[in-house]
């Protein structure tokens, strides 16, 4: 904050005009165009909250501001704390009826935050409940903003738990309603700030996103702040000393101004401690109690912790508020700055700290209404833990873990269960105290790991639970734990089938249908790939259970398994229909994991059938959904790979490259990064940028060259005339047992292998050893080609091209290759086959037969931007004296674009002029909404337009849209 009221006079915000203007502009854009997001970073005391408060104070009176704070409670940090506060403050301002009107009818996940909304739904799958919760928060905020402009302030995001970060990311990607602004603050340099970095970068890239970091005040600004604090103009020497001592940090300036004669303390903590030392003894006592209660302090709880009569408590509170150590907040108080609470709490004596925590815990136990709704159990657990009472910590943590699980706060649930396990051996007869065995606690912790993504740890916890489970007293437990461990192993990338089979074998007859159904469905998914009959039986039994008991997650998983079995047995149409049915069921119930899995299955099937256009549409839909629901780095990354590959094969290279580069900014998992960088390298090589392709070829994962990348690296080595490296790469790939596995790409390697073989043959000359090497590689390639099936149109075309390339100058084989690629929607492959056909004709001396295919290959290469192939075509044409000029007159080039718009920006401009939103533009061009927004921003800047409608008008006047239509 830039200043505080020390001597009773008011003081203005200092040195933040540019930042205030930027926030004001974000608000105006949000009102005019759609929801916007601003993130303010800075070190402790730099004035983030003061700046945001000044911004909201200056807004139009009809605008509504609600705020929520992340709370620092260590292991007991409250999940979704800022959003819970925002929702409850909206309820107080709008009323319960208005909240119900804004939300969909039926059971609401938000009822876990607002019990007056009714009974929350009994979720069959925890991820569904969390997804519904996110959707309902979004619906509520957009509905409230539709009535009046709404600014949601989220303070101290450096303390945000992962649930809060996930919900914020979801809102950032999905909010569209005009008049809605999210403003977040976080302390740069804090450990939690690093966890925010990917989200902050995403916000900064968005067209209605803003991120900046507050810097220190300069000497002049420090002087202005001091004048406001002291009530008179300070002398220059004092300003210089305070500026030097404070480093321009407004909170330092404030603390130094309180005692300008003494500016020697060595740290801000010393300054804050000195400020508390000037309090009365009663004031210090109340401040210490407040530090134990928390950053936000309810009046009644504070009174019980202090145990002071009103006539002593109230003057002490007045002293603290007047000195601005505490500020009044609704029905209680809050510390003016979190650092102050840290200092006060850190100065407590051990006995004093324990005594105050015991008082707080006893008061909350007697009256849970002393703390905000839904926080009683976790606050009790925190206070008893700090008081050192192991038995009560164990009990309170178990209850709080249950509350956290019901509220979808899985990270908090796991932390609390960890505490239960840590305290287990410190308490007499813990099982009797809790009414559950340690095996049950371990089982709950393992299941929490499924939802947090901590799969390896979950496997360990499940194994411990299995060791301690007693089938005699809890017959279902072993089967449940085995099923959980099988799922965890599956999610960790290992085979979980043994656990799933064991779960079925040990499952009692009266096991819950969802347990048996989901176990069967999960087992069917992988068993069906090896044994379609067995997998089909499991899938059908699971589907019957799911339908009989109304279990949509089981149904969707079983349908996905059935689809995979159908694909293995060659029933592709049936497989597609099953995937579509699974996706529909999963989408209706917010089962995002299965919905995305089903879309991914459809996309793979369509790619295998050579229907790249349909595959691109499905993959783009899945990728957009994955970004919307926060799974961009998991299922979304896989869908992005399919989308980019489809666009590349279709010849839409600029779109494919944009998709790949956009996806890589999300920092996807290592294997997906390897897939995307390999595809990017293929594009760069085809476009003729060998140096850039070589940079991409450097191992991006540090895990060696994956087998699917070998073909690209072989072609790159040949293009760079690095023939020994090319041959070594080819030999290693041919020996790799994974070449014919799920990560292999044998056809691509075969085609690259013929390039290596030809380069080796051309360089061999009369050298016998080199020619023998060429013969060995030829035999290896032919043996591999004989082992790979070619029973579909695209593999058949690859086989035809392979035979032509091996034979090299057989015009009959090249004609067959050209015929095989026509109509296959792969213009680059067709262009290469036409080039080979022309080369074969020239080798036979038939220049006339070479002219037509070479001209067509040149036209295709030009359309694609295939610079490398076009150079080869030009060399061949020059060598064979073939005229590449078209007999038709060249079309008149369109007039120059005076605005300097790129081809992609012209594509976006056409859609923008048609009235499409960023999301619709993104869907049409197979790019993300944030990338579309960046293009729109650049177009507005180049056209000098302030709004989209103005840009469309300028484009019409300049004739840009007419040229696009042609």
TrEMBL record:
Xref: InterPro entries: AAA_16 (IPR041664), P-loop_NTPase (IPR027417), Sig_transdc_resp-reg_C-effctor (IPR016032), TPR-like_helical_dom_sf (IPR011990), Tscrpt_reg_LuxR_C (IPR000792), WH-like_DNA-bd_sf (IPR036388)
GO-annotated molecular function: adenylate cyclase activity; ATP binding; DNA binding
CDD domains from the UniProt entry: LuxR_C_like
PROSITE patterns, per database record: HTH_LUXR_2
Keyword terms: ATP-binding, Nucleotide-binding
Pfam families assigned: AAA_16, GerE
GO cellular component: cytoplasm
Chain ranges of the HTH luxR-type domain: 894-959
Gene Ontology BP terms: regulation of DNA-templated transcription
Signal peptide from the UniProt entry: none
Lineage top rank: taxon: Bacteria
The protein's name: LuxR family transcriptional regulator
């Amino acid at each position: 904050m830039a200043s505080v009221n020390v001597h009773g006079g008011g003081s203005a915000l200092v040195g933040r005009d540019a930042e205030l203007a930027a926030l004001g502009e974000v608000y105006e854009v949000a009102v005019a165009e759609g929801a916007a997001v601003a993130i303010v970073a800075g070190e402790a005391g730099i004035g983030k909250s003061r700046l945001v408060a000044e911004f909201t104070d200056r807004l139009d009176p009809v605008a509504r501001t609600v705020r929520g704070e992340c709370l620092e409670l260590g292991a007991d940090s409250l999940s979704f704390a800022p959003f819970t506060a925002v929702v409850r403050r909206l309820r107080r301002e709008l009323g319960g009826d208005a909240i119900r009107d804004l939300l969909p009818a039926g059971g609401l996940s938000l009822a876990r935050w607002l019990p007056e909304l009714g009974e929350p739904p009994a979720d069959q799958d925890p991820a569904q409940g969390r997804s519904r919760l996110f959707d309902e928060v979004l619906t509520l905020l957009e509905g409230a903003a539709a009535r009046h402009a709404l600014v949601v302030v989220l303070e101290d995001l450096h303390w945000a738990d992962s649930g809060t970060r996930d919900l914020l990311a979801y809102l950032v990607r999905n909010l569209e309603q005009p008049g809605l602004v999210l403003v977040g603050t976080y302390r740069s340099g804090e450990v939690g700030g690093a966890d925010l970095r990917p989200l902050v970068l995403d916000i900064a890239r968005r067209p209605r996103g803003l991120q900046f970091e507050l810097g220190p005040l300069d000497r002049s600004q420090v002087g202005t702040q001091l004048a406001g604090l002291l009530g008179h103009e300070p002398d220059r020497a004092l300003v210089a000393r305070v500026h030097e001592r404070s480093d321009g940090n407004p909170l330092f300036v404030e603390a130094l101004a309180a005692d300008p004669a003494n500016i020697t303390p060595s740290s801000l903590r010393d300054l804050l401690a000195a400020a508390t030392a000037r309090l009365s003894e009663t004031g210090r006592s109340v401040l210490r109690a407040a530090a134990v209660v928390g950053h936000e302090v309810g009046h009644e709880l504070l009174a019980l912790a202090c145990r002071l009569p009103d006539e002593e408590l109230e003057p002490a509170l007045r002293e603290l508020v007047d000195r601005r150590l505490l500020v009044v907040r609704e029905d209680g108080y809050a510390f003016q700055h979190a650092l102050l609470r840290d200092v006060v709490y850190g100065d407590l004596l051990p006995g004093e700290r324990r005594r105050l925590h015991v008082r707080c815990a006893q008061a909350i136990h007697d009256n849970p209404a002393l703390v905000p709704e839904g926080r009683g159990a976790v606050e009790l657990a925190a206070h008893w833990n700090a008081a050192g009472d192991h038995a009560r910590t164990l009990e309170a943590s178990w209850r709080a873990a249950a509350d956290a699980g019901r509220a979808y706060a899985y990270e908090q649930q796991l932390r609390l269960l960890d505490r239960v396990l840590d305290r287990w051996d410190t308490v007499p007869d813990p099982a009797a105290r809790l009414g559950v065995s340690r095996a049950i606690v371990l089982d709950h912790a393992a299941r929490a790991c499924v939802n947090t993504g901590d799969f390896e740890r979950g496997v360990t916890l499940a194994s411990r639970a299995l060791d301690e489970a007693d089938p005699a007293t809890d017959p279902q437990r072993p089967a449940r734990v085995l099923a959980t461990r099988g799922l965890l192993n599956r999610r960790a990338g290992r085979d979980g089938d043994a656990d799933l089979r064991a779960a079925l074998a040990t499952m009692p007859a009266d096991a819950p249908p969802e347990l048996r159904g989901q176990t069967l469905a999960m087992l069917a998914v992988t068993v069906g790939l090896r044994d379609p009959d067995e997998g089909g039986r499991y899938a059908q039994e699971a589907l019957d259970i799911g339908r009989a008991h109304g279990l949509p997650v089981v149904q969707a998983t079983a349908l996905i398994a059935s689809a995979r079995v159908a694909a293995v047995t060659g029933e592709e149409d049936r497989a597609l229909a099953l995937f579509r049915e699974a996706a529909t069921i999963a989408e209706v119930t917010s089962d995002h994991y299965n919905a995305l899995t089903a879309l991914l299955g459809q996309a793979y099937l369509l790619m295998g059938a050579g229907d790249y256009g349909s595959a691109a549409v499905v993959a783009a839909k899945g990728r957009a959904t994955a970004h919307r629901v926060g799974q961009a780095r998991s299922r979304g990354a896989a869908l992005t790979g399919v989308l980019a590959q489809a666009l590349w094969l279709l010849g839409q290279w600029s779109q494919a490259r944009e998709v790949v580069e956009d996806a890589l900014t999300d920092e996807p998992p290592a294997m997906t990064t390897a897939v995307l960088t390999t595809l990017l390298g293929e594009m760069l090589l085809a476009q003729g940028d060998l140096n850039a392709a070589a940079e991409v070829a450097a191992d991006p994962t540090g895990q060696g060259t994956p087998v699917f990348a070998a073909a690209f690296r072989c072609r790159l080595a040949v293009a760079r005339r690095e023939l020994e490296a090319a041959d070594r790469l080819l030999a290693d790939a041919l020996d790799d047992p994974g070449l014919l596995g799920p990560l292999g790409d044998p056809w691509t390697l075969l085609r690259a292998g013929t390039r290596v073989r030809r380069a080796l043959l051309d360089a061999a000359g009369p050298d016998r050893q080199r020619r023998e090497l060429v013969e060995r590689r030829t035999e290896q390639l032919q043996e591999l080609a004989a082992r790979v099936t070619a029973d579909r149109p695209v593999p058949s075309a690859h086989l035809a091209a392979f035979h032509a390339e091996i034979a090299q100058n057989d015009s009959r084989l090249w004609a067959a290759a050209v015929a095989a690629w026509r109509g296959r929607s792969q213009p680059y492959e067709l262009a290469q086959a036409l080039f080979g056909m022309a080369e074969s004709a020239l080798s036979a001396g038939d220049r006339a037969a070479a002219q037509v295919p070479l001209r067509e290959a040149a036209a295709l290469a030009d359309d694609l931007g295939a610079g490398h192939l076009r150079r080869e075509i030009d060399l061949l044409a020059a060598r064979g004296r073939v005229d590449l000029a078209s007999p038709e007159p060249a079309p008149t080039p369109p007039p120059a674009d005076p605005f300097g718009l790129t081809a992609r920006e012209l594509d976006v401009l056409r859609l923008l002029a048609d009235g499409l939103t960023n999301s619709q533009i993104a869907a049409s061009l197979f790019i993300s909404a944030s990338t579309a927004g960046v293009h729109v921003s650049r177009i507005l800047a180049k056209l000098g337009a302030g709004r989209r409608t103005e840009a469309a008008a300028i484009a019409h006047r300049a004739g840009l849209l007419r040229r696009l239509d042609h």
